[in-house]
Every structure is written in C-alpha cells, then in structure tokens.
Amino acid sequence: MIRQTHLSSSKEAGESQRFSRRHMLTNTSAGFGMLALGGLCGGFSERLALADEVADSNGNLTGPLAPRTPHFSSQAKRVIFLCMSGGPSHLDTFDYKPQLERDHGKTGKYGGKLLKSPWQFRQHGQSGLWVSDLFSNTAKFADDLCLIRSMQCDQPVHPGAMTQMHTGTAQFIRPSIGAWTLYGLGTENQNLPGFVSLSPPPSSSRNYGSAFLPAIYGGTKVGRSERGNRFGRDREDVSIPDIKHRSLNQSQQRKQLNFIQDLNREKLKREAFQPEVEGLIESYELAFRMQSAMPEVMDLSNETQATRQMYGVDDPTTATFGKQCLLARKFVETGVRFVEVTHGNWDQHVNLKADHQARADACDKPIAALLKDLKQRDLLDDTLVIWGGEFGRTPAAQGADGRNHNNRGYTIWMAGGGVKGGFNYGATDEHGYEAVDSPCHIHDWHATVLHLLGLDHQKLTYRYAGRDFRLTDVHGNVLHEIIA
Amino acid sequence: MHFFAKIVLAGTSTLFFGPHLSAAESSQEEIAFFESKIRPVLVKECFGCHSSQSGNVRGGLRLDSQFLTRSGGSSGPAVVPGDPDASLLLSAMRHEDWEMPPRKKLSDDVIEDFRKWIEMGAPDPRVEAVAEVQGQVSDQDVARAKETFWAYQSPMMPTLPNVEQDWWPSGSIDHFVLDKLEQAGLGPAGDATDFVVLRRLCFDLVGLPPTVTLQKQFGEAWLKDPQQAVEDAVEKLLAMNQFGERWGRHWLDVARYAESTGREVNMTYPYAWRYRDYVIDAFNNDKPFNEFAREQIAGDLIPVATDEQWASNLIATTFLAIGPKNVNEQNRLQFKADLIDEQIDAVTRVFLGTSVSCARCHDHKFDAIAQQDYYSLVGIFQNAQTYFGIPPSEYGSYSFAQLRRQSSLLKLPVQDVHADDKKYSASELDDLHQQIRDVQNSLSELRRSGRSAAQGGANAQRTRLRLLNQITSLSAKLSVVDENGIPNSYCMGVQDLEGQYQDARILMRGEIDLPAQSVRRGFPRVLCLHSETVPESSSGRLEFASWVGSDRNPLTARVLVNRLWKNLFGEGLVRSTENFGVTGQSPSHPALLDYLAVQLIRSGWSMKTIIREIATSHLYRTASDFSEEAHLIDSDNTLLWQFPARQLDAESIRDSMLSVSGEIDYSRPRGSEVSKAGYQRVVGSFLGDPRELNRRAMQMAGQAVRNSNSVTASPRNFPPSRITGQSRAFSQGSRFDGIVRDQFRLAVEESLRKITSQLDMEDALCRSIYLPSVRDHEPRSLVVFDFADSSIVVGKRESSNTANQSLYLMNNSFVIERSEAFADRLSKHSSRLVDQIQYGFQLAFNRHPTFDELSKSVEFVKAWRTESKVSNRNEGLATFCQSLFASADFRYLD
Asked: Nearest Cβ partner of A46 from B575, B807, B812?
C-alpha cells in the first residue's frame, strides 16, 4: 500500500538567518497567512483566522492546504463522490417497492399510471439488501453499502437540484462540499491538487467552485469535458492546463528553473525578510514536482492487465467511467482529499428501459471494481465512497416508458469511511413518492458527510460579508444511526 | 429637458411583486362553492403536477393555497380575482394558451364553474393568517447604535496632530500616520529608491511598468527634488487614458462586472461592455463620485439636459442589471425577490460598506439593521423593472429551452453605431427572415401533429427544442437591428414601473410564500443622519440614490476613500472594505479616514484629488524594508512602519508582459468578444453553438492541413474533399492516408483547443480590462492570478501564491510567445548579449541588474546556446526573458 504524504512543512527552505520563521508565526496575528506554499497575504488570513478550526496545534504550518486536525477523530479521511447526473431512478435501482409492482397500472396518488420497475430486485449479501439487476455487480458489495432511501431536496429541476446537492443551496452562489472539505482538512499530498473533479460537465464549475472561500480550495478540473470531442475520446491523456512546456524537455526546464530561482534568491539576499519570496521559490519547486507527479498519477499504463480488466478500461461500454474510477482510486491513494467523478445522463423521461440499462452498464462494473480495489488496498475503511444523483424519479409513468423528476424521496448510498455496511436508512412510502420514514434532507446529508470526516458542520464556518457561513446554512442534523 | 421620461420599450411587462390577498371576506355560499366545485377538481386534476405535496411544480405553478394560486407560475398569475380572461388557469382549461390537463379537456360544466368562481372574486379559504413579524431590533437599539458606533456618525474634519519629527511630513496624511507611529515608539521607514517609487507609481496609477524614457526623466528629476519629481509624475499619470483603465477595473471588481448571467443557464450580456466603457471614462474624466453613485443607482430618473447625458445615465444603471442571475428559476416571484436582493446587496455593500441583505430573513444579528429596513429598500427596488436580456423581434418573444426568465433591453435615446458593429445586408436580412419563417412553419407543423408526436415521444420533443433554440437565435439576431439591418443601440439597466408605487411586505424567513405586514418605502434607519422620507408619488429610488451620493449618510465618502487608500497601500484603513459594520474591522487611523472623507466632499467628490494627495505623500515613497523592532510592536504593519510590498495583480502581470515585449495594443476595442457573438447561451468555454463545434474544428483543421501540405505535399494528392468530407474520407487504407489522418487528427485537436479556449483570448494584445468576462469562463491568464470572482462584490482580491501560477508562467503559450517577442525586442536593441541583458532588466524590473545578476544571466544564455541542439538562435534569450517574467522581481511591487 502506498500512501505517500509529501509535506513541504518539513522543508525549512530558505530560513531567514535574521529572523526565525516560527517567531514570525507566533507573533503575527494573521497567523500562518504569510508563509510558504500558497502563503496568502492580507485579507484572506485575517478572515481565515476567524474560522473555528484552522490551525495545526504544533504550529507546524505551511499554508492553507497543509493537513489540518479535524474537529474530532473520525474514520473517513477522503471522499470519492460518484455523481450520477440526471436523476437515476431510486425505484429501479436501490429502493425496492413490492407494492408498486402489485399496483402496476393503477392510478397513482397524484395521477398517472403507476409503473413497476422493469428490473428484477434481489437480496444480496449477509445483510440481504435489496438491489435491482441494474447494479448486479455493485450488489456484490451489498454488505458495504449504506442506503439512505429517504433523501429529499428542495429543487425539482436539474440545475437547481445539482447545485443544491453540491453547495446546499440553489439560490445563492456558495462553496461546494469539496471546497468545504479541503478548507476543513487541507490535503495530504502537496504535489497534487487537493480537490479534483474528473471531467465535470460543461457549465458546472459552480459545483466544484470555492465561491467566497479562497480560490485555493476550489476543485481542479481534470480532463476534457467539452462536448462533441470525439477525437479525444479514445485517448487517455486527460490533463490539467499548462502541465507541460510545448518544447522544452525536463532537463532544459530544470536549468531554466535553476536560473529563475537564482534570481529569486538574489532578491532574498538583497532584502532582509521576504516570506512571500520564500513562498514563491517553494511554489516553483512544487510546480516542477507536479509536472511529473500529475502525469504519473494519471498514467494508467502501469496498471496491471487484471486491474484494467476489472475496471473495464478496455471495454468500450465501460471505458470512460472505468478510467475515471481507476483515476479516482489513484488520486485518493496518493493523498488527494476529495475526488468527484460525474456520470450521466440518467434523465429518462422516455426510454427508461433501454437508457437506464445503458447508463448502468457503463458504470456498474467500474463501481464494483472501485469498491473491490479500495478494499484490497485497505483504503475503503478510511475512504468514503458516495453514489447518488440530484434526485430520483416518480413511481407514476411518464408516457409508456419513462419517469418524471422526484425530489421528495430518492436514494443515495455511501460505502466505507465509517458508515454501517449492509444498512438501510429511512424509507419512502409504499410506492416511493416521498420519504416518510426518517427523511434525510440534503442539509442532513451534508452534515453527516462532514461528520464522517471529523468536521462539525456547525463549527466549519467562514466569515464573509459580515456573516459566518457554513455548508448547511442554519440547518442539518447528523444521521448518527448510519455511523458504524 | 427630460424629466422622469420613460423610454419606449419593445415588449410589455406586468410584473408586480406579490398578489393581493383577501382573507376570510367571502360569504358562506362562496366558500361552499369553492369546496364543492373547485377544490375537488384542483386536487384530482391539477395537483399531480402543480402542488408542493406531490413535489411536482411544473412551470413553477403551485395551486396549494390562495397565495400560490394567485401568484401563479412562470407565465403569470393563475387566477386574477374577478377577471376570468386574465386568469391563465381558465385559459389553460379552455385549451387556449396551454392544454390543461394535458390531452384531456375537462367538461364544459367544470370550466364554467371555474369561470363563475373567478368572476365572483375567486373565494378561497386556503389562507394562513397574515403574520406580524416582530423585529428584535428596536428603535432604541437603532438610536443607541447611531450614538455610539463610530461608522454611524458623520465624519468631521479632525485637527492635525502635532508630531515630533515635524520635518518629515510633506502633507496632512503624513501627520496622521507619523502621529500614530510616534505614539507606538516607532518611526517611518526611510525613503525608497527612485526606481522603486516610479515602478510603484506607474503600476498603481496606470497598471503598467514605466517606460525606459520615463525612468530616465524621473531619475534625473528625483536627484533635484524627490517631492517635485513625484508630483510631476503623478500629474502625468493621472492625465493618461490608462489611468481610467486601471482604476475603472478596481471599480468593476466591486461592481461585480461580467458579461453573462452565470449560474447553470449562462446567458450572455452582449451590451454590458457599455458600462465598462462608462466606468473607464468616468475615472478618466474625474466624474464627481456623488454623481457617479447617483447615476448607477437611478440614472434613469435623473433630470437631464441632453439626450447624450440621458444615454450615459441609462448605461450607468447597468450596475443594477449585471449581477448573476438564475434565469432557470421557475418561479417568477422567487426570481424577482432574488434579483432585488442581489441589487440591494450590491448597492449597500458597494456604496455604504454595509450588508443590508443580511436582514432578508431576520434582523441583523450584530448591526442595528432590522428586517424592516431591508424590506423598506425592497419597496424601493421592486418598483423598477430590470432589463438584462434581449428585445423580442417582430416575430415575438422566444426563449431557449432552459431559459425561464427573460427580459428585454433599454434602447438608447441616441444611436451609437460603430463601423465594426455587426450589420446585415438586404439579402442577409431576407435570408434571416426566410429562415425564421421556415422554422416557424416547422414548429407549427410539429404542433399540429401534436397528438401523434406525444406518442412518438423523445424525438418529437427533441425536434421541438432544437427548433425553439434555432428560432430564438434567429430572433435575437433580428431583434437588435432595424429594418435596414443597421444595429439599434441598446444597453442594460432599469426603469421604474408604470402606475402606483407599492410598498413591500416583510417575508417571514425570506420565504416568498410567507408574507407578513407591509412596510413603508425608506432607507436603513441606522444610516440616516437626518430624517429621510420617500414621497408617495415616487418609487423612492432617485431619493435613495441622492441620499447615497451625499454626505447625508455617514458612510459613502468613508467607504470610497478607504478603497482608494487600499488600491495604493494594499490594505484599507478599514481592512474589511465592504463591511464597516460591527462585525467589520475598526479603522487603524480613524482621524485620517475622516480627514480623507471630508477632503473628498470638499473637493467636490473628486477621486483624482484624493488619489493625488495620497500618492504625493511622503509615506507613499517610503521603503518596504523590514524592521525586526517594528515587527515586534506591530506585526501586521497596521501603523505602516514599512511600505507594504505586494504581488502584482492579474491584469498588471498580463499587461506588463505585453508592454515589456513591446506588443501591447493600447486602443480600446469596440465592445468585446461577447458583444460580437451576441445573445446566446454559453455552453462550454466558448461562444457559439456546441453542436457546431466539430464542424468548425474540422473546417479549421482542414484549412490548416491544406496550408501546410501545399508546401510539403502536392495539392494534387490531397483533394480538399478528403479532409472536409469527414471520416468517410479516411476509409482507404494507403500509407499516405494514414499520415494524413494523423496530421488531420492533430490539427483537429489543436483547432478544438483553440475554439474551446476562445474566451481565454490567448492571442489578444489589448489591455486585460477589455478581455471578455463571461461568468465562470474568465480568461485563464487572469483567473490564475486571483482575478476577482465576478459573481460577488470584491473589494479586495485574494493574493495567493500557488503552484498553478508557477505552471502558468513556466508553460503557458501566452507567456512563451511574449518571451519570444521580448527576446526579439532585445535583439533589435543591440547585438551584444550584455547590452541585451541589461536592457531586459531595465524593461522588466525597471532597474539595472546587479553584477551577480548580470554575470549569472550571461552565463545562463551562453550555456543554453552551447548545449541546445535546436537551431533557433534566440531560444536561449527567450528562455532568459521568460525567466524574468517568472521571477519574484517581476511579480512583486516593493
């Protein structure tokens, strides 16, 4: 098992002889804001200092991305969020409704004809969790899944619900849950971004953005996402901007960088105390390391044939999502805090049978592979895997073979990271219209995810425009029942 | 003279903020009628798609209560009591505008029941009692805050403090700062060197490095008299057009300027650039700030003498219209409430340094701002209509599939047509008209075959959406030109609504369906130095604007001078530049803040006067040297014992690369990329139809490959049809085809990259303020260096130092190309390497290299030339130039 942590905190690069760095820290009310890696000046640090939990107690601080002690000890250290865009039907996947089957064709509570699931549900594992045949591979890990079958959100339309799922509100522009996580915990590998969003759909940057949090907590978009790029589809070189020089090779760039650093050190020599310049020197070194670290972690060619096969990397059906799941595993393995992978389009108003089947075919095997891989690498215990869409779908049919949006009751599941496996939480009514038993609002879910990461959603605050903001606004109850 | 004149607008609007509700005034019989004839039908036929309970609110319409029914959905009120013809519910049941319930017409008896019910006033007992919201902020709290809190008291001219080192100050500012330093047992830093001061002045005032000539002049003047040298330089810089571009950009940060709505459905604002130009001109002309403020809040209402003035004032109100918007919002009342909230938030934080929007949901926890104060401002702003979209064409109003909230634009009273504006020839116009008629025909055909299409399912729906998008694009093109194809001149902005001005009702917890008592239109009480009232005959917006742009409130002048100070010293005297409230920070130099505020007012609100006074202070030319002793006493440098060194901001880095390389284009482009592209939805990071992406890329690639092959291969072997004819051209398997395929594939990749990075404008040589500013797609060259997030009011940008920035400077092609041009410039300057390097330092760092720097540089370039196998002689020099761009000296302002 490789779990490297590259902390630049241990590198006391360029310590000023006249003035100790530690001294600077303890005597600056702005705290660590001025220092090293990503060392930010001014306004940010002063705002950051207002937040509840920002600093490592050892004074061993290097910057806003340095790993931070959570509010309390917890099992989950990182997150993989498998975001199912478009609203997968809970009734055809993880919320078994025998009554819906019996009442098939009858008029539903709000009109329309009830539609039974076209897929067979079966019980799986020791726990006997009901999962439909759409996810027959994932179902093999039933004893690791914690189903929250009573999800609710406020938005019945895609963009709004998607934004609420990520930021807690569709009304205002707010930081994404990944940004909050990074802000709360920092990250373990300083050579890589702490929050990665793999091939997010176009125009979704708010869903991985930092809003008013410092930009450094925003998600880094990796890979191409522009539509219609069929020429790039069969290539594996997903990337981040400016990671490679167009003509200089590595050794030439090292020479250039040595010269840049010479100039920077000349400046340091001339002036007595320049923490920002020290920071700059460090960030060039980081960038240089990142240039090799990033392609390295994204290079799938070193994976064994067995692994590639398990994720379905070479099978056209599963290739796209399989690669992304494999990348997600590689990212968390090297210490990235939060990885999001998006898979769509689950919005089947029509052609439910064919299209839901196709969506599931593309992701079921890779998800099972991811769970298996994390398990065998001993990573599942402290990695929280989340699967879910922005809402579910109606029990009543739309046309002959479709379902409408349903934000009053749907299912999200989580695995690993300290949740109970083989566990059902909450329930919808007999047909699956609405969460009736222990409803879990998006705010409650957010509070729970943060809790699993050791963060108190009421304490993880950020002062902006004269007010302390949090992911859950003034809401949110932790679902203690689902915690193992 | 125009007085409260209205502008004739395309399209009509009947937006009012909330429906009139009647409580239990209906008779027993009427209620019985509702219960027996109406309610059961609503539950059975409508709730499936239109109720909170079912969780399904199609078209934003909910019929669960009297309030929701009368509020209606996206299209308007479902029921207008007493007016069956205006009630959309009835028209839908009659299958007029809509067909409701879908594919099933209710019996004539039922429809007649609804008509009768509406005519009798739509009695509906489903009413919750109107709540009275009891505020927690009492009148006494307000009075106490006004008496005790510094920011709520009028700024007074302070007396100049006596200082021991009385030889040091060159003006009043220095007295205030030195006084504080001496009290702490400290003194000011020594003077910085001439080149440091000049570099500071140039970047701070015009956002560009000093030219070599200016460096020389200034150096000589400095030797004679530093104070005079600075004064002369400041005068010169203040008079340059680049001053407005620099300081205008600071204003655009707080004004959350952008050229699109942002959010999930990101629609362009093709006319936002007029406001950008207005702001730049205002700074260059030193427009008095009180007028500047008034025009942005109520320019449409200010009496004017000329049409030109009126046009300019209308453009100023774009300030209220450019905020981010969720145009996908189903509920029009929610949309309007959010729009007004955004306007109030921007106005109060930008001009008054106070967050009033905090009180949208409940009284302000810390400041004495009650929910009542918030809704008294809502009353003022709700009587205006905001124009941010595109006018309807003669064919009517169409909208993109996901665009639920549309709006028109304001037509300027004077035409402003430029040679570069998009015009249509007669035949192009005919063609557009023909296209739109064709699409209209296809649409109505689709509608006629509606029944079968509904069964046909997805395809018909997809076709409909595609046609709708087509017709919207066409209509948007036609709507902005006159019948001769000449563009009409539009701007974004606001206009008061016709008719009676209405007060707003407090919304419990800010929820639009929980209205409580109504409150009189007015201003935040705690900020009123005198009693202020809004006349019945006015919306109050002009009065509010006049009050904001005056000394009748304690904050406008202070907030502004604090910002001017921040732009020159990196931090404000009040560090929380948009929050002067209890939760903000107290001023480090209260007397100085008040001095500057009063000076501003006395100067006739002249911003240049204040900037000049600060820039010519002795303090401004002190060195940024570190002092351990001072640091122990004042670690945050609040007292300014050193000049605060800081990083250059995004625009300064990009603009100075262009300036140093000698490529910069100082002319102001007409409009922007967004105005050229016109009104559209931004999907992906480029402007244009995403479905066209592949075709465009193929075309570009084909062209590129043809061009390159015309040199290396015979065109005879490479018929153009092969490359434009998509993949079938590749079916033959010859080796030559294989090479061509690879070449073509690479060319397509490169073309795709170019198209999809259109908004980065990597090839542009104009100043950064003119780059397109599409929300969520701001140019990478700016975003990477902490560009202001255009969706929020940004008084002070972050200043981060990230690996991402290093990657950009090491690898981005814009940087590499500027470095190459920089190297060319050096080669042209001299053929001797030493001279080249010295000139490079002078251009990039505005100083001569030290001996060490010079020798290391020479060594570096020479070694590169010996080791490099590349024939390009200039690579070594270009790599040296890029290193200068990447170094701390270039990126910092000492």
From this structure: B575
Q: Tell me which residue in B647, B682, B883 faces A256 most closely, judged by beta carbons.
A: B883
A311 and A294 assigned to the same domain = no
By the 10 Å C-beta count (0-12 exposed, 13-18 middle, 19+ buried), A166 is classed as buried
Nearest CA in chain B to A202: B684
Label residue B727 exposed, middle or buried (CB < 10 Å: 0-12, 13-18, 19+): exposed
Task: Say yes or no: A391 and A406 in one domain.
Answer: yes
Which residue among A158, A283, A394 places its CB closest to the CB of B806? A283
Please count the structural domains in chain A: 3
Q: Cβ separation of A433 and B55 shorter than 8 Å?
A: yes
Domain locations in chain B?
A: 28-119, 152-239+573-647, 416-488, 667-786, 808-893
Q: A293 and A310, same structural domain? A: no
- Closest residue by Cα to residue A396 from A110, A139, A29: A110
Residues of chain B contacting A205 with CB distance shorter than 8 Å: 776
Containing domain of residue A284, as a range?
A: 246-298
Please give, one letter per residue, the 3-state secondary structure of B108-149: HHHHHHHHHHHHCCCCCCCCCCCECCCCCCCHHHHHHHHHHC
A14 domain-assigned: no
Rounded-to-integer distance, Cα A164 and Cα B309, Å: 44
C-alpha–C-alpha distance, residues A183 and A179, integer Å? 6
Looking at the fold, whether A102 and A176 belong to one and the same domain comes out as: yes
B559 and B581 in contact (C-beta within 8 Å)? Answer: no
Q: Which of B180, B183, B178, B158 shows the shortest CA–CA distance to B168?
A: B178
pLDDT profile of chain B (894 residues), mean per 10: 42 42 68 87 84 69 83 81 88 82 85 90 80 80 92 96 96 98 96 97 98 96 97 98 98 97 90 98 98 98 96 98 90 90 96 89 80 95 96 88 88 91 92 94 82 58 85 92 93 92 89 86 95 93 97 97 97 94 90 98 98 98 91 90 94 98 97 93 80 82 76 41 40 60 80 83 95 92 91 86 89 96 97 97 96 96 84 84 97 93
The chain B residue lying nearest A432, using CA atoms, is: B54
Q: Which of B796, B803, B882 sits opposite A43 (nearest CB)?
A: B796
The neighbour count for residue A17, using CB atoms within 10 Å, is 6
In angstroms, the CA B798 to CA B261 distance is: 23
Whether residue A429 contacts residue A126, with contact meaning beta carbons closer than 8 Å, is answered with no
Q: Do A39 and A137 belong to one domain?
A: no
- Considering only CB atoms, which chain A residues are within 8 Å of B45? 111
Same domain for A26 and A90?
Answer: no
Q: Which of A254, A271, A298 is the last residue of a domain?
A: A298
Residues B581, A39: C-beta atoms closer than 8 Å: no
